[in-house]
Amino acid sequence: MTGADKTKEFTTANRAAWEEAAPIHGQQNQARLIEEFSRPGFSCLDQVETNRLKALGVEGRDVAQICCNNGRELLSVKNMGAARCVGFDGAQGFVDQGRELAKAGGLDVEFVCTDVYDIDDGFARCFDLVTITIGVLGWMPDLQRFFSVVAKLIKPGGALFIYEQHPILEMIEPADADTPIVWEFSYFNKKPYVETGGLDYYGGEKYDAKPATSFSHTMAEILMAGIDSGLAVEHIEEFPHHISNTWWNVEKSGIGLPMCYTLVLRKNI
Ligand SMILES: C[S@@+](CC[C@H](N)C(=O)[O-])C[C@H]1O[C@@H](n2cnc3c(N)ncnc32)[C@H](O)[C@@H]1O
Q: Would the pLDDT of 59 be above 90?
């Protein structure tokens, strides 16, 4: 856990790094996504996420996505029949892309550009379901405060759905499929990881980038941050498949590590 000032320092610097990455990601994905979302009912969600969301029930529900990036997942949830949908992301570049995709699909989805730690209190208890997916928790310097902010958004009886990279992956430097895996970091490592080669996890190109700092959180820390925010664990499942664009070396190794998990936390009525 870091103090509020230190947290702000990290998230402000990371925001600049994400703004720098947004046009690079846009160049790789936006034209294809515009075409895909112009098809009614399009979804970019995989079967694991789709099944879990269907089990939770999204039809007619108010849904928020935290760190929604270009909004493609939230727009897919809207296409599953969700009611009000609001995506929060700190980078204006991604929010603009999300609005463009919503327009292409004729989808009524709101996007709010804000640091997650500063989400406006006006959104408190507005959502039946809040989602967090693929590559979010590692950007949070203060996990406990992050979960408190997120828990506040959920209506009584509503749920938080997480589909994330497994924390065990933080022990290994991500690399291409032919690079052997090396156990480099302790599972309990608390030293922030600074990336200066850029955030192009689509094209894999390195550039002289603004520094982006990420953080390791163990599974127990993630669960306890949720529990300490007043949420109850309803479901957890670990999977061997790869959901990021980064740990190709772990995927190829075939040694059977958990690579991702789904987690549902419920707020009391
Ligand atoms: C790796 S992306 C993952 C999001 C999404 N699941 C995806 O696959 O595109 C991380 C996103 O989190 C956003 N982000 C990181 N830290 C943030 C913060 N403190 N507040 C708001 N957004 C943040 C970044 O701008 C980026 O769009």
A: yes
